[in-house]
């Protein structure tokens, strides 16, 4: 039996309306889904762009950080970055070098304790630390205006500035003292001539009286000693600037060592020569530069009465402060070193720490090197030794002798100098520095 149910017209309208509503809702949902899909795709694009921009910004920040780190490490000023607690968070290469500590050993330390440990203070006044002269300043580190995020300690190496100032002061002293010494030397030399004349007359008249003749000879010897001293003073005040040429380095050094043999034989000194073979000759006055080397060798030997190592070294210099090519000669001993309180005065005339020294040796050395348009410096550490460094202009290679100069061509053996007399050796030894 089949039963058929007929829908009422109202019900059919409701059903059709429901289907229509459903279709509209489905269509709306489809549109919303499409819109959402489009939005998601757009957001994916925007996110990708944002990620790319962020990656680029991170790369730029990293490049900037690397660049700033490179700048910081390239500074000759030492920089310590402190946090709000006063502890070191960052150290540049210059700070590590000037303080003599590796960066890892400095990071994390209290700046106050570190300064006390190194015997340094935050001060604009120069203070010596090992081989450097430093000034130390402290500044606030502001992350934004008025908001501090820590402190900066700035360490300035003023070693060269102090050396230049010291040279300038020394030059002023030399000029003033040179004028005074020159006048005194000339004033003393005049009556000395009269004394020597009268002494020679006494020697002539006292030939028949040996005991009295001895007194006249002693007067004459004393006059000669004073005359040598005055000669040294005049060399200091007016070093000769002429008669220069290419001189064989090895010959100069060996001649100076020969003249110093009387001192070397009294002291167990190990002499080491390190002369660059690429520098066979230097442009100088032979006698004066030999005197410079002799004075410094004698000075080094006298600084090692119990023996030690004396090193003479010659190399090409990288220093361009002389305005041209230069050579660098160093004479080093491993004696007790120079008292820091005396270091700034060692080139002053008449300054000596020796009982029998005249204090003219290094003053004359300085005057001769200055006349050669060179420079002499000293580095010394107590208990380790002293190094004298001479910089001399070396503007060109030795000229060929057949080019009409008094140069040396390096092909023929240079003739040996005439042997120095005993009196000359004694006179040159008197010029040795204190």
Output the helix-strand order. Answer: HEEHHHEEEHHEHHEEHEEHHEEH
Rg calculated over all Cα atoms: 42 Å
Q: What is the number of beta strands? A: 12
CATH fold-level assignment of the largest domain: Heat Shock Protein 90
Helix percentage: 40-55%
Strand order of the largest sheet: 2-1-5-4-3
Shape: rod-shaped
Quote the beta fraction. 15-25%
Structural class: alpha+beta
Which CATH-level-2 architecture of the largest domain?
2-Layer Sandwich
- Largest sheet properties: 5 strands, antiparallel
CATH class term of the largest domain: Alpha Beta
The figure for the number of domains is: 3
Low-confidence stretches: 398-434
Output the CATH homologous superfamily of the largest domain: Histidine kinase-like ATPase, C-terminal domain
Mean pLDDT: 79
Characterize the structure shown:
- This protein has three domains: 75-157, PAS domain (Beta-Lactamase); 163-237, Helix Hairpins (Orthogonal Bundle); 245-430, Heat Shock Protein 90, CATH 3.30.565.10.
- The termini are far apart.
- The chain contains twelve helices and twelve strands.
- It is rod-shaped.
- The strands form three sheets. Strands 2-1-5-4-3 form a five-stranded antiparallel sheet.
- By secondary structure, the protein is an alpha+beta fold.
What's a concise summary of this model?
The chain has helices at residues 9-74, 93-99, 103-106, 111-117, 159-205, 210-237, 249-259, 261-264, 286-302, 340-343, 361-371, 422-430; strands at 78-82, 88-91, 127-129, 132-144, 147-157, 245-248, 269-275, 281-284, 308-317, 326-333, 375-381, 385-393.
């Amino acid at each position: 039996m089949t039963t058929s149910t007929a829908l009422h017209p109202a019900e059919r309208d409701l059903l059709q309306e429901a289907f229509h509503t459903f279709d509209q809702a489905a269509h709306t949902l489809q549109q919303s889904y499409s819109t959402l899909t489009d939005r998601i795709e757009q957001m994916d694009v925007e996110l990708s762009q944002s990620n790319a921009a962020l990656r680029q910004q991170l790369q730029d920040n990293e490049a900037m950080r690397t660049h700033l780190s490179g700048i910081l490490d390239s500074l000759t000023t030492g920089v310590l970055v402190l946090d709000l607690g006063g502890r070191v968070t960052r150290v540049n290469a210059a700070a590590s070098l000037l303080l003599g500590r590796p960066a890892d050993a400095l990071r994390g330390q209290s700046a106050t304790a570190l300064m006390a440990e190194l015997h340094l203070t935050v001060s604009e006044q120069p203070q010596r630390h090992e081989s450097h002269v430093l000034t130390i300043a402290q500044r606030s580190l502001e992350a934004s205006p008025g908001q501090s995020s820590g402190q900066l300690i700035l360490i300035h190496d003023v070693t060269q500035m102090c050396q230049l100032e010291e040279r300038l002061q020394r030059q002023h002293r030399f000029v003033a003292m040179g004028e005074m010494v020159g006048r005194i030397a000339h004033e003393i030399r005049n009556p000395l001539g009269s004394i020597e004349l009268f002494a020679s007359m006494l020697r002539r008249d006292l030939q028949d009286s040996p005991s009295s003749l001895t007194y006249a000879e002693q007067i004459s010897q004393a006059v000669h000693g004073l005359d040598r001293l005055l000669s040294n003073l005049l060399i200091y005040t007016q070093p000769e600037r002429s008669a220069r040429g290419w001189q064989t380095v090895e010959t100069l050094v060996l001649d100076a060592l020969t003249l110093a043999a009387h001192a070397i034989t009294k002291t167990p000194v190990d002499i080491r020569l390190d002369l660059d073979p690429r520098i066979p000759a230097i442009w100088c006055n032979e006698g004066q530069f030999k005197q410079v080397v002799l004075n410094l060798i004698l000075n080094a030997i006298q600084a090692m009465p119990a023996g030690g190592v004396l090193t003479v070294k010659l190399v090409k210099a990288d220093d361009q402060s002389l305005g041209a090519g230069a050579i660098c000669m160093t004479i080093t001993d491993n004696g007790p070193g120079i008292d820091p309180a005396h270091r700034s005065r060692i080139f002053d005339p008449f300054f000596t720490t020796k009982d029998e020294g005249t204090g003219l040796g290094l003053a004359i050395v300085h005057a001769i090197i200055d006349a050669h348009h060179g420079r002499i410096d000293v580095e010394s550490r107590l208990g380790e030794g002293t190094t004298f460094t001479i910089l001399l202009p070396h503007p060109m290679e030795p000229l060929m002798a057949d080019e009409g100069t008094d140069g040396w061509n390096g092909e023929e053996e240079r003739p040996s100098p005439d042997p120095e007399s005993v009196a000359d050796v004694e006179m040159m030894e008197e010029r040795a520095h204190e």
